[in-house]
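Sequence in, structure out.
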Amino acid sequence: MARRNRTGGGRMRRIPVTAEVRGGTAELVPDPDRPEAWELLIDGAPQSHVDLAEPTRLAFEYQRRLGHAADLAAPAGRPLAVLHLGGGALTLARYLAATRPRSVQQAVESDTLLTGFVRKHLPLPDGARIRVRGADARQALERLPQGWADLVIADVFAGARTPAHLTSGEFLDAVRRVLRPGGWYTANLTDGPPLRHLRAQAATLRSRFAECALIADPAVLRARRFGNAVLVAADGPLPVAELTRRAAGDPHPGRVLSGTGLRDFAAGAPVVTDATATASPPPPPGTFG
């Protein structure tokens, strides 16, 4: 478990814990406002936030938006088969274990040292049906049976960048193969001005799925700053009105693009292939303080 030191008055004071992992220096920093909450950083860049006492609390905006998609992918409480590409602190897997008991989840994380660090200090809840596999996300995806997943959540970063081989149309073809009919795909991406990467990702998603939506901070969509964006896709209708309502009601309101709005956003952007794929752009200096 994460470390605690006893203060002079007898109270237990939590202190940060660190470890060297494949991706750099991992650090778990206690949330000063919540006694069982921790933030995971890699080389100083915030990655995840976990509240062991309240796993349904999603502190980061991008996690909240992924959570909205997970909530709406099926009727409330229905167990799902979920594939997480990218493990991190397993925040969304913990969330789904709490909101959709009896769900079967696989998380793929190539950094096995990070997985060991997280599971040592932030153990998974008893009874959670979460299997964590140490593998490359795309290789693991291509080995899964056809039609295995109701929901695929992609949140993969090497350092602060999405690897190139997880940005192409061929990657999305592999996602589609694993999804059951009616299944959903959602992904967390980052980009900044002039949004070339995000526009190309939107164009690529639209080339593979019948229905798509993009959720992001309005300032990010206007190419005013670097930030996260969440893509959602399915072959059936998406509940865009409810996604919009939820995103607008977040502590930091998000905007949803779909239909003609998303088409216009992606206009002129190329569909990414394995031959043309590049990693997402690095965050500008000072992004994380």
